[in-house]
Amino acid sequence: MKLARMLRHLATPDWAVRRAFSAQTADAVTHAVVAAEKAHDIELRVAVEGGLPLAALLRGQSARERALELFSQLRVWDTQSNTGVLVYVQWLDHAIEIVADRGISARVPQAGWDAVCARIAGEFRAGRYAEGALAGIAGITELLKRHVPPPPAGDRDELPDRPTVL
């Protein structure tokens, strides 16, 4: 199983994930992220990764571990109010993880994040990647409505809004 996973990750070309997450999908996600950040005092970052890097595969890195690593590498943790949220999609393993900084995770129960991930995964299984990403952002927005206030006046955008395809 481990060897099959490694071969699948190493053999899948970068363009495969970019075809699933087209420029149109990236545009729609960008607009949804901007709207979510206006509704709540958060900084939302979306990262989509096709094949894992060789080092991650050799370590047997899980999607959760990779999401935590990218949370750091993409500097999602580096927001003024510790309100960064990363939505990580590991496309080949069909895994979705949400990692929230301590300013958010202290207020939002894990069950809420898990429900959003399940919603995204359901759309992705049906091959509806744009719909899944947008449903996920809508789910995050709805979840945060109960736990996080709107941003203060003059709030600046601290993280890129466009999804990162790795």
Question: How do the helices and strands line up, and which of them pair or pack?
Answer:
Layout: H1 2-11, H2 14-20, H3 23-39, E1 43-49, H4 54-59, H5 63-73, E2 84-90, E3 95-100, H6 102-105, H7 110-125, H8 129-145, E4 164-165
Parallel strand pairs: 1-2, 1-4
Antiparallel strand pairs: 2-3
Helix pairs in contact: 3-8, 7-8
In short:
This protein has 166 residues and is α/β, with parallel strands linked by helices. It is built from eight helices and four strands; from the N terminus they run αααβααββαααβ.
Please, could you describe this protein's structure?
By secondary structure, this protein is an alpha/beta fold. The protein has a single domain, classed as Diaminopimelate Epimerase, Chain A, domain 1. 53% of the residues lie in helices and 13% in strands. It has helices at residues 2-11, 14-20, 23-39, 54-59, 63-73, 102-105, 110-125, 129-145; strands at 43-49, 84-90, 95-100, 164-165. The chain has a four-stranded mixed beta sheet with strand order 3-2-1-4, sandwiched between helices. The chain is globular.
Can you tell me the residue ranges where pLDDT is under 50 for at least 5 consecutive residues? Answer: none
CATH topology, by name, is Diaminopimelate Epimerase, Chain A, domain 1
What is the percentage of strand-forming residues?
Answer: 5-15%
The gyration radius over C-alpha positions equals 15 Å
Task: Assign an overall shape.
Answer: globular
The total of beta strands comes to 4
- Oligomer, anyone? single chain
**What number is the mean pLDDT?**
92
Largest sheet: 4 strands, mixed
Coarse structural class: alpha/beta
CATH class: Alpha Beta
Q: Biggest sheet, strands in spatial order? A: 3-2-1-4
Tally of distinct domains? 1
